[in-house]
Amino acid sequence: MGEKDTFLIAVDGVVFTIAHHELQILLIQRDAEPFKGIHALPGGFLRKEEELEDTIKRKLYEEANIKDIFLKKLHPFGKKGRDPRGRVITIPYMALISSDKLEVKPRAKATAAGWFCVYHLPELAFDHKEIIEDSLHHLRFEVQSTNLAYQLLSDKFTLTELQQAYEIILNQKLDKRNFRKRLLALGIVKSTTHYKREGAHRPAQLYTFKDRQYSMLKEKINISFS
Amino acid sequence: MGEKDTFLIAVDGVVFTIAHHELQILLIQRDAEPFKGIHALPGGFLRKEEELEDTIKRKLYEEANIKDIFLKKLHPFGKKGRDPRGRVITIPYMALISSDKLEVKPRAKATAAGWFCVYHLPELAFDHKEIIEDSLHHLRFEVQSTNLAYQLLSDKFTLTELQQAYEIILNQKLDKRNFRKRLLALGIVKSTTHYKREGAHRPAQLYTFKDRQYSMLKEKINISFS
DNA sequence: CCAAAAGTGTTAGTGATACACCCATGT
DNA sequence: ACATGGGTGTATCACTAACACTTTTGG
């Protein structure tokens, strides 16, 4: 077992949030070569004693002050030329966070972290653009086949807020009546007795997710043959 | 960049085929510790100058004489205790091969390779059982949302053969008439002017895939809200 | 003429889409 | 009273699911 090649392993976080009616992603600005000054996904190298998830948690905390976040491992990127320093295999983690849990004050090393609209990304280091695109597809898929959206909203929310979240992620308008019918039919939200009153209009009823636990919607992913 | 930890990276092939009316998977028998004599997925360690895909291709060729195979990268497994020799991150590749392209005569190192029904697997080394389960889910999903099945059949085939392939993968009976309607509606196969005659019954028309190129079926993966 | 697999259509039900008006509130 | 966003129902259409008999061949 001694004569085998070994490699650096990185993890990268593709952290999505919704803010200012935009689907945003967290980027840091690199403070060292290569790509110094260029934006990149937060992440870092795996350490010997660490689990993969712990690495990404540690880096998200260090670089963006984010804790307790939903993470989903995606498939690795490992092409030879992807890091000019040498061979690095990176494992992306897709993550979602509610914007009201946010308080991204970059800590310590002060690599300026910031949120960027996914449709207007700056130039990116490494193959991070590709990684982000992959994650975005994944996010869109997940949001339609799981109850993942609960990660993006606070405990209580109006159906309009939820609809907007879906619209922003999928980047398309949805029909209000059909959206509500569908949600209730799927049984992923339930109404509360509380109302949100603000502005000169009828107060909106507040809803919660029945289940704040990642779960599959009934197997709707089916090209059924019978 | 010098003081970072480095790791062994393995790739494992989860190679499916259909034979004898079973969904089978390729396993080798380990010829060294750990897990000597126990069955495991074919695979090996990434080398410095190699792309990930080249490693898995090389190992599949060495260990099972398989070439030119469809490969899909899945998410990595990297828990600390998964390999008793030390930390290894493994990247599984799901693969599919038509059983008539097969001629698995284990080469050189003569690690006895063989095909096993996925529902009757022997004891497996490492976390390979978990990896196989993940791949199987993936396979079932892909087969319903892409034209991937073309990998499993020879150039010309009868619709009954194709249906059996689906039934075996999904592990459920399908309705003949609905299956055919659906396939033709999706436009993934087309008829040829040839027939397969065998046995004392009406000859079956032979079909081919319109497109022997991995492609998505029309985005049927949709919990639609509008 | 018998056995064996191929081939083919219709109906009922369910879910998707499209669409427009009244409601409750603050100012 | 008016402006603002909240809330609701119905009709059509498309797709899914269930189901049984006739055809062609070899022996």
Q: How is this structure best described in words?
A:
The structure is a homodimer of 226-residue chains. The relative contact order of chain A is 0.16. In chain A, the strands form two sheets. In chain A, strands 1, 2, 3, 4, 5, 6 and 7 form a seven-stranded mixed β-sheet that branches. Chain A has a three-stranded antiparallel β-sheet with strand order 8-10-9. Chain A has 226 residues and is an alpha+beta fold. Chains A and B meet through helix 2 and helix 4 of A and helix 2 and helix 4 of B. The first copy, chain A, binds a DNA duplex (27 and 27 nucleotides) through helix 4.
What is this structure's SSE topology?
Two copies of one chain form a homodimer.
Chain A: E1 8-19, E2 22-29, E3 39-40, E4 43-45, H1 52-64, E5 70-73, E6 88-96, E7 113-117, H2 128-145, E8 157-158, H3 159-170, H4 176-186, E9 189-196, E10 204-209
Parallel strand pairs in A: 1-6
Antiparallel strand pairs in A: 1-2, 1-4, 2-3, 2-7, 5-6, 8-10, 9-10
Chain A binds a DNA duplex (27 and 27 nucleotides) through helix 4.
Identify the notable features of this structure and list them briefly.
4 helices, 10 strands, DNA-binding, alpha+beta, three-stranded antiparallel β-sheet, 226 residues, seven-stranded mixed β-sheet, homodimer
Which protein chains are joined by the largest interface, and how many residues does each one contribute?
A-B, 47 and 47 residues
- Count of individual helical segments of chain A: 4
Determine the structural class of chain A based on helices, strands and strand pairing. Answer: alpha+beta
Order of helices and strands of chain A: EEEEHEEEHEHHEE
End-to-end Cα distance of chain A, whole Å, is: 51 Å
Mean pLDDT rating of chain A: 91
What's the alpha carbon Rg of chain A, rounded to whole Å? 20 Å
- Indicate the low-confidence ranges of chain A by residue numbers: 106-110
Largest sheet of chain A: 7 strands, mixed
Overall outline of chain A: elongated
Strand content of chain A: 25-35%
Note the quaternary state here. Answer: homodimer
Total strand segments of chain A: 10
Question: What is the helix content of chain A?
Answer: 10-25%
